[in-house]
Amino acid sequence: MSFYPEFDEVLDRLIKKAKKYDSINLSVTDLNGILRTKTIPGDVFHRVVKGEGGIGMYSGTYSIAANSDAFYPEIFLKHYMADGFLIPQDAPPYENHWCAPATAANEKVLEVICDIYWKHDKSQVYNSPRHLTNKLLRQLDEQGLSIYSAMEYEFTVFESDGKTPAWRGVHAYSNIVIRKVALTVSDLKACLKKAGIPVRSVNTEYGPGQLEITIFPKYGITMADDAIMFKHAVMETFLNHNFKATFMSKSDETSSPSSGHYNFSIWNKEKTKNLFYDSEAEDNLSQLARRFISGIITHAKALTGLFDPTVNCYRRLVPHTFAPFTVSWSYEAREAFIRAKNSAENCTYLEVRAPSGSSNPYLVLSGVIAAGLDGIKRNLDIPPFEGDITDCELLPRSLDEALNCLENDEILVESLGRDFVDHYITLKRKLEIAKLEGMDDIEKERQLYMDLI
């Protein structure tokens, strides 16, 4: 029996599976959307997780910045910077064909989603983004609702120097310029397919070296699990082919900003009916869809602090970048915070356009659910769409301003949890804003973010 007997069934399934693999990656996602991993050889996995009582992991992992600087919250110091335990979660593992051992040494590697639990009381560490998402999903489930969604990522590809774009010019949707990275993209598609994350579409985007690759939607937390694996597969696969891929919002002065649009619909618990669609409504949008739009718009300024989590993100949220800059919704406008897609029952969904490519998908999913549930609870409604989004209230123009909005949004804070929000804001202020304060230097931002985002 392990130190955490409630997870023995999950561990037993994993132990059986581990025998077929050379390495087992036990990974948690930090607040920045970065995987932090311990690798265990497959042939000793049983001995480590059962015989030794578990796998220790730095309990301050959720207090690390994108450049791996750390701060030490009171609860962490209270427990003397103690280790926690890495506990595999009840989620399907992924075959990892893109990491260095798989590509360089032909190892069979299994990627396992974990979370960190305290040793002293066996509770889950409170500032885990995946733990937060599960809490919000339970609240949605209590309403008899399921969420079906996908992230839609853009990223920029550079040569191995990290400075020269893989191609020059603004060549959106061009199969000519994509030839430069065609073999890399083919390798990526094959790796993702083996991992159970099939690619839906690939195209060049509106910037030097910029690509958009989409994956299929999933229900619940699997969407965010897939999105994290997708981003790391992209970054590692391009490194394997001597390129550098980054999801930074704006990676140099000439680059086109990279987004992470979030597309979602709400279905019944049985997952048989799209509850956003109403054939009798003039615009096909149900009252539930309108509740979600209104909830997200009501909390848009606070949500920006979650959706656009780096100092660099605010180089994107300005006019004429195909990104939102106002608290607005629309059917078609690319600069709206939300676009309502309503062509048919299975094609009726909301596109939240605010998130950056550098956003953490767990926090995007959590924020959308929290805001949508508030729209339901308070019966919020939206005014008729008027068509001119430029007259709407402006979004925050900096990470500091967005965090102030988040901190002062009492409803959202209560839903997300005061401890979590305080921790998240402190990390961002101490380890990002303070380091870049008074600067308008994209090179400094690259040093802070580009290695791992």
Could you describe the 3D structure shown?
With 453 residues, this protein is α+β, with helices and mostly antiparallel strands. 34% of the residues lie in helices and 20% in strands. Strands 7, 8, 9, 10, 11, 12, 13, 14 and 15 form a nine-stranded mixed beta sheet that branches. Strands 1, 2, 3, 4, 5 and 6 form a six-stranded mixed beta sheet that branches. A hairpin with a 5-residue loop joins strand 8 and strand 9 (210-215).
Task: Give me a quick take on this structure.
With 453 residues, this protein is an alpha+beta fold. It has 14 helices and 15 strands.
Give the oligomeric state.
Answer: single chain
* Secondary-structure element series: HEEHEHEEHEHEHEEEHEEHHEEEHHHHH
Structural class: alpha+beta
As residue ranges, the low-confidence spans are none
Number of helices: 14
Rg, Å, rounded: 21 Å
**What percentage of amino acids are in beta strands?**
15-25%
- In helices, the fraction of residues equals 25-40%
Q: State the distance separating the first and last CA atoms.
A: 38 Å
Write down the overall mean pLDDT.
90
